[in-house]
From TrEMBL:
Biased amino acid composition, Polar residues: 1-12
Annotated PANTHER family: 3-OXOACYL-(ACYL-CARRIER-PROTEIN) REDUCTASE, 3-OXOACYL-[ACYL-CARRIER-PROTEIN] REDUCTASE FABG
Name of the protein described by the UniProt record: 3-hydroxyacyl-CoA dehydrogenase
Protein family: Belongs to the short-chain dehydrogenases/reductases (SDR) family.
One Pfam short name: adh_short_C2
Disordered: annotated segments: 1-20
CDD domains: SDR_c (cd05233)
Residues making up the signal peptide according to the UniProt record: none
Source organism: Bordetella flabilis
Length: 278
C-alpha cells in the first residue's frame, strides 16, 4: 500500500469511528475550554464523537487549544466572558451557526480566590458569584432553548468539593459553588421530563492553574516551599494525590452519554474519597 493510500485509509477509519461514536452528531460547548479541566473535557468529548466549541476570554489561548485539538475532531472557539450576558448570547448564537444546536453544555469556567472572611470585600464576593454562579446561569439560559427544541440535552456543571462542604478562607467561593449545586438540583427537576439531564461534578484539588495559584498563596503566607504546599493540598485526598484533569473529564463525558439518561440532579465528587455523599 502506498503512503497516500495508507493515509487515506487511516483517515476513513478515523472518520468512521467518529460517526459511530456515542456523541456523534452532538454539539458540545465547554466554557473555560482553553486549558486545564476544560481542555481535557473538550478532548474527551471530541473522542466521543461530538463537535466541540471552546469558550473563554483569551482568544490566543483558545486558538492554541483549537490547533492542538483539531486532529481529534471538529472543534472551534468563541471568545466571551461568562460574566457578560450580552457577549455570551452572541457567542452561543455564533457557535450554533457553526456547528448546530448546542446539545451539551459544560459549565467549567471558574475562579477561586482565598481570603479571610473579615477581609473579604464586596468586590471579591461579587466576582466569585459572577463567574462561578451567575456565569453558568447565563450559559444555561443561552443553551436551553435549543435543547428544549431538540428534546435532548446534557448540562454538566463543574462545581467543586467546595460546593459540598465548607473550606476556611474561601467563603465566597464556597458560597458560589454551593449555589451552583443547588441550581443543578433544582433545574434537574424542571427538565426531568424533557429529555435533558442536569448534573454536577465536584472535583477536589486538581492539578490545574487554580491549584498553582493556591500553592503560591500558601508559599507566600506560610514560608513553605512549593513542593510542601502541593503536598499539603494533596493530603486532603485520602489517596494522597492531586486529582488529574483527565479524571474529571472522564466523569463529565460519562454524564453526557445517551446511556446516562437516568443520572439526573446529581453532584458527583471526583476527589479520591475526601467527601462521601450519602
Amino acid at each position: 500500500m502506498s503512503k497516500a493510500s495508507h493515509s487515506q485509509s487511516t483517515h476513513e477509519a478515523t472518520a468512521g469511528a467518529r460517526a459511530s461514536a456515542p456523541l456523534a452528531g452532538r454539539h458540545a460547548l465547554v466554557t473555560g475550554g482553553g486549558r486545564g479541566i476544560g481542555y481535557a473535557i473538550a478532548g474527551r468529548l471530541l473522542r466521543e464523537g461530538a463537535s466541540v466549541t471552546l469558550l473563554g476570554r483569551d482568544a490566543a489561548v483558545l486558538d492554541a487549544a483549537v490547533a492542538a485539538l483539531a486532529p481529534q475532531g471538529t472543534v472551534g472557539r468563541q471568545a466571551a466572558d461568562v460574566a457578560d450576558p450580552a457577549s455570551l448570547q452572541r457567542a452561543f448564537a455564533d457557535a450554533a451557526r457553526s456547528f448546530g444546536t448546542v446539545h451539551i453544555l459544560v459549565n467549567n469556567a471558574g475562579q477561586a480566590r482565598s481570603e479571610r472572611f473579615d477581609r473579604t470585600d464586596a468586590a471579591l464576593w461579587d466576582t466569585m458569584l459572577a463567574v462561578n454562579l451567575s456565569g453558568p446561569f447565563h450559559c444555561i439560559q443561552a443553551a436551553l432553548p435549543g435543547m428544549l427544541e431538540a428534546g435532548w440535552g446534557r448540562i454538566v456543571n463543574v462545581a467543586s468539593t467546595a460546593g459540598l462542604a465548607g473550606y476556611a478562607y474561601v467563603s465566597a467561593y464556597c458560597a458560589a459553588k454551593h449555589g451552583l449545586v443547588g441550581l443543578t438540583r433544582s433545574l434537574a427537576l424542571e427538565m426531568a421530563g424533557k429529555g435533558i439531564t442536569v448534573n454536577a461534578v465536584c472535583p477536589g484539588y486538581t492539578d490545574t492553574d487554580i491549584v498553582q495559584d493556591a500553592v503560591r498563596n500558601i508559599v507566600a503566607k506560610t514560608g513553605m516551599d512549593a513542593d510542601q504546599a502541593r503536598a499539603r493540598l494533596a493530603q486532603r485526598n485520602p489517596q494522597g494525590r492531586l486529582v488529574q484533569p483527565e479524571e474529571v473529564a472522564h466523569a463529565v463525558a460519562w454524564l453526557c452519554q445517551p446511556s446516562a439518561g437516568a443520572i439526573n440532579g446529581q453532584a458527583i465528587p471526583v476527589d479520591g474519597g475526601e467527601i462521601m455523599v450519602g
